[in-house]
Specification:
The protein folds into three domains: 2-179, Up-down Bundle (Four Helix Bundle (Hemerythrin (Met), subunit A)), CATH 1.20.120; 212-336; 342-508, Heat Shock Protein 90, CATH 3.30.565.10. The chain is α+β, with helices and mostly antiparallel strands. It has eleven helices and eight strands.
Length: 511
């Protein structure tokens, strides 16, 4: 408010000072110069008149005429500037009348006399009219005019000086007020803003160093106090979240320790189970071979010598021993997958299918076109395991064919991103959607063993081989006719393109 008053007063003084300067520069200053020039114009007229009266030469009248024109111009300049100065305006009129009287009574008659009668007659006329006294009277009036103009100018200058001094004093006072207010504002800001902000920053740094339970309190301006409360609320939330994180971390660490212990136990258990399966398979082979051999011996030697029931019992014993041998062999093969490894190398699946031909050999029963494949890629893996994989899948399709319908099995491949997707599709009895995952479980059978022979481990072995090669295996649940089992194997640097050993698009499976 105080500064506003100072500003208003300074504005008013500046306006007054500007008006006073205008008076000095554009009025009294111009009047003073014009008054001096008016005296010089009158003197030029007197000089020109006397020169012409002495010489009679018309050229000597030039100063007279010029002075007369200049006098009229100066009157035209000064009269508008004297509206606010009636006293000076009256003196100007008296000086003008005096100059006019000198011209009409002295100068112009002398000029006329010189032109008509010559310079001597003009000189006599001037001596008779006492022209010098009249000229001095006109100059005296002009001198009085100059004094009045000078007095008015000096008063205007004093006014300018006074208003300027007042403006300077006002500005100095305003500067002192600004300094005092600035110092007070600095003190107030320091007390209400700087110190509270510094305290808040120190408390925030303390929290940042880990003191999450330390309360944050801020004094000062209401806004800073509100900010301090918000920061403290945020600190409490962070502290609560950190406590939750600590509890969660402790729980995770406990779970990790438990999982590590379970993983170690599981590793040991798997190792023991693999060792057990391998040893059990070997250890069971010898007594089982004896049982099977003696049962077969009984069947050959005493067939028909005992009653029909005894022959049936012997047949059951031989069949059970043979099935037990197949189960043990499959279990042994299942336990060996991934344990006895020879290392991965590029394997052509076309070549693998050619080898599968020698194992399943469907040509004699179903014809040469029962199994076909096209443009299979080269993948990275173990050739023996991949042969077992495709032999199990092709054999599975041949086993679950539809009665009285010639089986057709197609093996194809396509690139899907970073994987090769291999499809083994048939026209057999198919697989219902609810059993799509069950068929890969070990010893899992969907049909009685009397209807379809086997141990129920073929697809479990296939699944383990695919997963050992870093892939996955599944059933196409959308297929409505027959079954389609798919497995995906990764594309590696040395298996980026399919290897095509034959130019034809389809290759027949032959023995």
């Amino acid at each position: 408010m105080l500064l506003a008053l100072f500003a208003l007063a300074a504005t008013a003084l500046a306006a007054v000072n500007r008006e006073q300067l205008d008076v000095v520069l554009n009025k009294t200053g111009v009047l003073r110069v014009s008054g001096e020039q008016l005296g010089m114009a009158l003197l030029d007229q007197e000089t020109g008149m006397r020169g012409y009266a002495l010489s009679g030469d018309a050229a000597d009248l030039g100063p007279f005429r010029d002075g007369r024109e200049q006098e009229e111009q100066l009157y035209a300049t000064m009269i508008p500037l004297l509206e606010d100065y009636p006293q000076i305006r009256g003196q100007l009129e008296r000086a003008r009348l005096s100059a006019t009287a000198w011209r009409t009574q002295v100068a112009e008659p002398a000029i006329t006399k010189t032109r008509d009668a010559g310079p001597e007659a003009a000189q006599q006329l001037l001596n008779q009219m006492d022209g010098k006294q009249r000229f001095d009277s006109a100059r005296t009036e002009l001198a009085t005019l100059q004094e009045q103009i000078l007095t008015e100018r000096n008063r205007a200058v004093d006014d300018v000086r006074s208003s300027s001094n007042q403006l300077v004093v006002l500005l100095i006072a305003a500067g002192l007020v600004i300094v005092v207010l600035g110092a007070g504002l600095v003190v107030m800001i320091n007390r209400m803003v700087t110190v509270p902000v510094t305290q808040l920053a120190a408390q925030v740094r303390n929290v940042a160093r880990g003191a999450y339970d330390a309360d944050i309190s801020v004094t000062g301006a209401p806004e800073l106090a509100s900010l301090g409360r918000d920061v403290n609320t945020m600190r409490r939330q962070i502290a609560a979240d950190l406590r939750e994180v600590r509890r969660a971390r402790e729980a995770v660490e406990a779970i990790n320790q438990q999982l590590q212990a379970q993983a170690s136990e599981l590793t040991r258990s798997n190792r023991d189970l693999e060792q057990f399966a391998y040893v059990a398979s070997h250890d069971l082979q010898e007594p089982l071979r004896k049982v099977a051999s003696f049962c077969q011996l009984l069947q050959r030697r005493y067939a028909g010598q005992l009653d029909e029931r005894a022959d049936q019992y012997i047949l059951f014993a031989v069949d059970g021993a043979q099935r037990m041998q197949r189960l043990i062999n499959d279990l042994l093969a299942f336990s060996r997958i991934g344990r006895n490894t020879s290392g991965f190398e590029p394997v052509s699946l076309d070549a693998v299918m050619a080898e599968v031909a020698g194992q399943v050999n469907p040509e004699d029963r179903f014809g040469a076109e029962a199994v076909t494949w096209s443009e299979l890629p080269t993948v990275s893996g173990e050739e023996a395991l991949l042969v077992t994989l495709l032999a199990n899948l092709v054999g599975n399709s041949l086993k679950f064919r539809r009665p009285d319908v010639p089986p057709r099995i197609e093996v194809s491949a396509r690139r899907d991103g970073d994987s090769w997707e291999i499809t083994v599709a048939d026209n057999g009895i198919g697989i219902e959607a609810e059993f799509a995952e069950k068929i890969f479980i070990i010893f899992q059978r969907l049909h009685p063993k009397d209807a379809y022979p086997g141990t129920g481990m073929g697809l479990a072995i296939a699944k383990k081989i695919v997963e050992y090669h870093g892939g996955r295996i599944w059933v196409d649940a959308t297929r409505t006719e027959g079954a389609a089992i798919l497995f995906a194997l990764p594309v590696t640097d040395n298996t980026g393109a399919a290897t095509l050993p034959v130019p034809t698009q389809h290759k027949e499976l032959t023995a």
